[in-house]
Amino acid sequence: MATFFEVIDKIREVGNIPTLPTVATQVMSLAADPNSNISDIAEVIETDQALATRVLKVVNSSAYAAREKISSIQRAVVHMGLTEIRSITIGLSVMQMFPGRPGLAGFDREAFWNHCLSTGQLAKAMALRLGYNFQGDDYTAGLLHDIGKILLDQYFQDDFVDAIQESRDRGIPLHQAEAKFIGGTHFQVGAWLVKRWRLPPSIYDVVAHHHAPSAAKENREIIAVVFMANILAQAKGLGFGGNIYRVPLDENDGWKIIQQEKPELAEVPFEKFIDDLEDNIEEIRTSGSIF
Hints:
There is one protein chain. 64% of the residues lie in helices and 0% in strands. The chain is mainly alpha-helical and 291 residues long. It has two domains: 4-13 and 100-286, Hypothetical protein af1432 (Orthogonal Bundle); 19-97, no CATH class. α6 (82-97) packs parallel to α8 and α8 (137-144) runs parallel beside α13 (201-209).
């Protein structure tokens, strides 16, 4: 079995390592430039009409709760702010790089991205309920938390499909089967890619630790929120990320971290907390694919 470093070496040898899309890099640069303005960022996003359409769909979703329909990118930037729109654009640009398509047995990219989009929307909704302002990184981290699966599907497809089947047959977490068949996990490979793209540290930490938030040393709150959004999306059947294993809702590491940070929630069961998310879940279920 290969080691993680051998897995990365193989990806490098194959070449064509994905680079961050041009629109995303331009928006990141403009958002960090004090001399840039709203029109500059709006013009960059509008150069990609498919991306612009998806950005507007996200901004008008219940996760962001706009009071009235937003129909232009410029208004979206004004409403969301530069940092928030940057995060949304990064996430959707990356998703657009790897379009939904039926894969081999057990890994359908369209179902995968629907799961990731659901996780992003639920993470944003949870963060709002908990009073956190992650400036859009909650949505983007939710969208990209499983990005490593795309690399495994792209560079190790046969082994990855075997790992999915092993996970199903034995009822074990997918990352355990990945380690067996490939030598590295989707969160290790994904974290490597996110670091290569120089995305914000909070997104890196979510990708690296979204299966074990208690092991993280920094950004534990956003990791916990995405962890909870991920397991809720799985429980509600919102898309499918290839992982048949389900973390129990009633006792999870993410909620324990939140309860430590917010003592007023110490006696509140997680399933009670998510009761108010039913409207978000129903909207996600009925809104259709973003592709």
